[in-house]
Amino acid sequence: MKKALLVIDVQYGIVNFRDFKEELFLIESIIQNCKSKKEPVIFVQHFDQHEESQLHRYSEGSQIVSNLKEYADYIIEKETPSAFFQTNLATLLEELGVEHLFITGFNTEFCCMFTAISAYDRGYKVTFIEDATGTVNTDETYEMRGLDIRDFVGTVLHWSDVIEVQDFEEYEEMYK
After folding, report:
1. What is the pLDDT of residues 72-92, one digit of tens each?
2. CA distances from 99 to 17, 37, 102 (A)
3. Which pTM was predicted?
């Protein structure tokens, strides 16, 4: 089964928001593993329409983190939370013969989750690597004291019984 890695929205406007060192380290480790196995690494780059946004097309914040961008085999541009909606991602994956997608990147509860669900809906086997995602949001954002957003999203996707959810150590054991 041919696999590919999606690296979602690893852009300066997000990663400069707070300390994401651990998430970026895990994402790079997964990228290197995929590269060593000649599996495609596909970056997804989000652009907002609002000029004041950190992710506006012509802002510095919209740029993919440079030390990771060098790993990209392909870059898909998107304007919504799903990397599939109105993009050429599905066509690219079909051309590459990909059947299994690994999901990493930012923001866990939006672009990563929406893309994982969209991938499943299109028939892909999906592995969501929970601790290799991050979010700029907090429990205060959602007015839910004590909420661990990554864990919550990972649990919901896991309970769906259709999307494989792993942490980095489980990924390493199973796929390295």
Report:
1. 999 999 999 999 999 999 999
2. 33, 15, 10
3. 0.94
